[in-house]
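Researcher: I've been going back and forth with a colleague about how Aminopeptidase N might be arranged in three dimensions. Neither of us has a model we trust, so I'd like an independent prediction. The organism is Streptomyces xantholiticus, in case that matters for your notes. Sequence below.
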Amino acid sequence: MLLVATAATATACTGVQGTPGAAGLRDPYFPWLGNGGYDVRHYRLALDYDPRTGRLEGTAEITARATQDLSAFHLDLRGMTVESTTVDGAEAAANRAGTELTVRPRRDIDKGARFRTVIRYSGLPQTVTDADGSKEGWLRAPDGDALAVGEPLGSTTWFPGNHHPADKAAYDITVTVPDGHAAVSNGEPAGERARGGRTAFAWRSAEPMASYLVTLAVGEFRTATTRTAAGLSVVTAVDPAVAKESSRLLGEIPRIVEWGTERFGPYPFSSAGAIVVPAGEVGYALETQTRPVFPLDRFDETTLVHEVAHQWFGNSVTPASWRDIWLSEGFATYAEWMWRQESGGFPVHKSFREAFADEENWEFAPAAPPNAEHLFEAPVYGRGAMVLHKVRLAVGDEVFFAIVRGWAAKYRHANASTGDFTAYVEEKSGQDLAALWAVWLYGARKPPLP
Ligand code: ARG
Ligand code: ZN
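Model: Here is an independent structure prediction for Aminopeptidase N. You can compare it with whatever you and your colleague have in mind.
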């Protein structure tokens, strides 16, 4: 929830007036993403979706704290029509330009003050095609069912906010849909209310969440709640068309969450679960917080382990910028390697060898993807996991697993960068690992097989 305010251009006025918050957080890959000058604490989204027309009507109530004196502030929102904007109950001027919504309150907001802005908006939310060709944002199936997935920036298509992973916040999301449909989101169910042929489904995420991890699925879901042995609630939602094929693996979630807890430390959220949809709507699985999304063709045990591992690595310990995404994907891939060894007898060092032999993993350094097109490519995953295995070989198993758990504990519900990681590993191990980082994390060329 902490956010670094970037310098804003000063307004040409006298006295102690505030300046506008920055339009972006200068992310190396998406400079405009996120906004400066405030830190969102809580989003309350009240949404109404009509599967027949595809229209979404929303009210976003955003509670934030100013990190500078503010004469105006930005929100990210792609498409949609803004109908009204207030700040602390008073109407505020709002201006749209591209994906930026600029809000100018009647009175400046003082540094340190808490404020509440309410945006009413509506329209047909967009599907975004990313630089790598994958689809995200708001995906609408031919039957009207909707699925919102937002890595890295698709959440901007369906609610206004501070959409950089550095500004995590709590969420309360209520979605009203026609009877016969259900709406599933992150966190725990917080009530259902039927009225006049429509039902409102409320979901609550008390622990901080990055906006790219927010999900919403509208369809004829079958939902079920079970518990892990430790009592954590596991909420699953499955499209009836894929219920039969997915039921066995859905039953494995409690065991995989417990396995993660033994290896990585306390589970970071108040619930776990999954959303399974038919193949085709979305081309990848996504670790959406507490409730990862799986198209049926990606719903296999390895991918499930991967997305569950992201709850610690990515969702609780969140990349400080998109350049640090290898920290999420490297750990989640390494979790797959560990699982393969522990449940299938395939040793981790063989997974390492396989990854080493795969030329795709050598296209660029995991800590430096050349551009946004390459953010989710092989080196970020495979070579990210190789970095972790090299650390393990350098420091030994005992220190390595202390590092894994300590890292998850130290940055729990926070953000961390590659520099934070290398510093933490060196501090915990007492070793100077500069040569390891230079070759495995930042090096462009493949070294000889160790
Ligand atoms: N983070 C997802 C995973 O590894 C992959 C998401 C790919 N997203 C994308 N926009 N290409 O499970
Ligand atoms: Zn992943």
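Researcher: What would you highlight for our discussion?
Model: I'd start with this: Residues 130, 132, 134, 136, 151, 284-287, 306-307, 329, 376 surround arginine (ligand 1) (CB under 6 Å). After that, consider the following. The radius of gyration is 22 Å.
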